[in-house]
Fold this protein.
Amino acid sequence: MGKLFGTDGVRGIANSELTGELAYKLGQAGAYILTKEKKHRAKIVVGRDTRISGQMLESALVAGICSVGAEAILVDIIPTPAVAHLTRKYKADAGVVISASHNPVEFNGIKFFNDKGLKLRDELELEIEAIILDNSEELPVPTGEDVGTIEAHTTGPDDYIEFAKSTINVTLEGMKIGVDCANGASYYTSVETLKQLGAEVYPIFNKPNGKNINKDCGSTHVNHLMEYVKENNLDLGIAFDGDADRCLAVDEKGNLIDGDVIMAICGDHMKQNNMLKQDTIVGTVMSNLGLKLMARDKNINIEITQVGDRYVLEHMLDKGYNLGGEQSGHVIFLDYNTTGDGLVTALQLIQVIKEQNKPLSEIAKIMEVLPQVLVNAKVSNENMYKYETDKEIIEEIDKITHKLKDEGRVLIRPSGTEPLVRVMLEGKNQDELNVDATHLAQLIEKSCK
């Protein structure tokens, strides 16, 4: 990754790391790089989540877009996947989302999509960075009637709702569904979509005030929804994050259904209906071993990428697959959208429930979620990879791997953002995993400090 862009756009504490000045420059450079080959006045869709800094950053970003002669189409508060869809629907040249996803309110971010609704390639992000940091290209400075304009497109959320509804072909009448909106961008679109499809909707955390996004709610704090579903005898619950590109579910008994289980359920259903391209699901190195075991039983192929939905998507596009995602709830149904789409994911899961006419707890038995233990080892930056050659650590990893055999695994992964090495053990005995993971992390800390 570059100096500004991480794995999911530019992020930081709003008005400190991600300032209005930087947003303005990102608007300028992004609009220029993404539209400089166009022979017409470029159009860029701009959406944001509910956090309080969104309007400030939007104003600066849009000023930057207009300063290079492009037109900004404002779709207001809207989920990230909606911007990806609307960029294509409105035949725009690019899209921008102002959001920090599942992070706390003090953070914000700016993420670009190209005209196909896809996240930018690394080389394009580096071109944008080079303009901002190194003045690598001279930007156009139009005047008079060539200055860019702003259009407020008020139908954006409802256009997205119509799209989401079109991805399933069942009515939701008779279903009672809880929805945790994370006080974020889905507070209107998710609830309204489910209502229009006939469901009885029980929303919680759907009153954003700019300050409460993701605060003890949403896909990172599902405990409230788990209790709410049980207390109200609901058929299931759906939890989104702040920008609604993630979706986790809760069954009627209050049990968590994570992204791996959602992919198992939907992937098997798609295969049975000849809709799963090449009978393949794309996961990451953090996908639960239970997903692979399910796939083996159902004659489904699992392919693995590094952590990050952008890498999942790149692999899907490269190989022609149509289902992939992460345990965290970033699930990509490429037949419908070009990014993780929480609402589309929820609807695909609900359609399986309706078509199989079984409770979600029964359907979820398709996959046994094996216990995972994650322990962080604190290391120095210069010794981040020393564990790969340390004899004592290698012997301990081999010992644990031999003990787990085919019913578990050891995954060692350096953090991309902190001086940490993450030790993940997976298997059937939670207590043994805790002991082994802690011991291995201590060895790594000792050797790599």
Notes: The mean pLDDT is 94. The first helix runs from residue 20 to 35. Residues 372-448 form a domain with the TATA-Binding Protein fold (CATH 3.30.310.50). DSSP finds 14 helices and 19 strands in the chain.
